[in-house]
Amino acid sequence: MFDLTGKCALVTGASGGIGAEIARALHAGGAVVALSGTRVEPLEALAAELGEGAHVCPANLSDPESVEALPKAALAAMGGLDILVNNAGITRDQLMMRMSDEDWQSVIDVNLTAAFRLMRGVMRPMMKARWGRIINITSIVGQTGNPGQVNYAAAKAGLVGASKSLAQEVASRGVTVNCVAPGFIQTAMTDKLSDDQKTALMGNIPAGRMGTPEEIAAAVRYLASPEAGYVTGAVLHVNGGMAMV
Amino acid sequence: MSDIADRVKKIVVEHLGVEEDKVTESASFIDDLGADSLDTVELVMAFEEEFGIEIPDDAAENIQTVGDAVKFISEAA
Which of A31, A71, A130, A197 could form an SS bridge with A193, CB 3.0 to 4.6 Å? Predict the structure, then answer.
């Protein structure tokens, strides 16, 4: 089940905790993977760990030219492009009254606009193949909101709306577009929280613990699989019951 | 010219699954041949590949009939 043999997957933000785990899960499922990110070193380390069928395609998602070039580079490296995982994301947290235009724009650019451009860039090979999987990693805060994350929550909510719209446009061509919305996941991003913050958070999570990157990756692998062909426009929440939406 | 028209016709027949005799020069992809808007995008993609040309978005919007496509490709090729 959930076999990805012969499929080619582009994963952005593959140098991060969740992204690397997504790449591992897709690769373990038999897919060839293109690992994208800004930092080349961790990408190359991951490619070395995965061995055959792993390519490094660095890109700076805040640079439109770099974004436009990425699907082409991934297609050239892998010889196909069947699965796109828009996982890359940045945060510039700040109370809204103190949030600068730049804090707002940089988060929208990377988390929403780059994802849009990448989806547009991969449509052609997917439409031709009459098969494609787009999986956007959003966040629970796109649905619930979160103080200090006006920009991030807006970008993630925007990505959900974009996914649902595109899902309707291309469903008849065998291309599905879905979101995976993580709750609190153990990564470098959440390691920065204080113990008090973590304790307060746990009180809101029925499962009583943070999630793991592996649990996000498993959801992505499912949505990327042939078995998920009838699932489109969905948001799969992986949050330990923190918000049941 | 006729060569281009034949190749355009063949693509339209294959892509839209319509009878060859319905693909006349004045046939509209959407009104006469049952295409939806995404089909027209795919047809333009197919023309680009078949003829090795690039059809900009604003030109693509004006290609609504088989004749429009043949005319544009003849001028571009």
Answer: A197
Going from N- to C-terminal start, the domains of chain B cover 1-76
Residue A173 touches partner B, C-beta closer than 8 Å: yes
Confirm or reject contact between B48 and chain A (CB < 8 A).
no
State the pTM of this model.
0.93
Q: What is the ipTM of this complex?
A: 0.82
Confidence (pLDDT) at B72: 95
Instruction: Tell whether residue A87 is among the known ligand binding residues.
Output: yes
In our burial notation (b when 16+ CB lie closer than 10 A, e otherwise), range B44-61 reads bbbbbeebeeebeeeebe
Say which of A124, A169, A172 has its CB closest to residue B45: A124
Q: Which of B11, B36, B42 to mutate to test binding with chain A, by most A CBs within 10 Å of its CB?
A: B42
Indicate the residue type of A81: L
Where helices occur in A79-228 by DSSP H, the ranges are 101-108, 114-129, 141-144, 150-170, 188-191, 195-202, 213-224
Give the 3-state secondary structure percentages of chain B, helix then strand then coil, rounded to 5: 65, 5, 30
Domain ranges of chain A: 8-236
Active-site pick, B3, B6, B32, B36? B36
Beta strands A32-35; A54-56: pairing state: parallel
Residue A52: partners with Cβ closer than 8 Å, 6 or more residues away: none
Q: Give, in words, the CATH class of B1-76.
A: mainly alpha
| The listed CATH number (3.90.226.10, 2.60.120.620, 3.30.70.1530, 3.40.50.720) that belongs to domain A8-236 | 3.40.50.720
pLDDT higher than 80, residue B1: no
C-alpha count within 13 angstroms, C-beta hemisphere, residue A65: 0
Residues on chain A touching B45 (C-beta within 8 angstroms)? 124, 127-128
Which residues of A carry out catalysis? Answer: 152
Tokens of A195: 């113990």
- Residues of chain A short of pLDDT 70, as ranges, are none
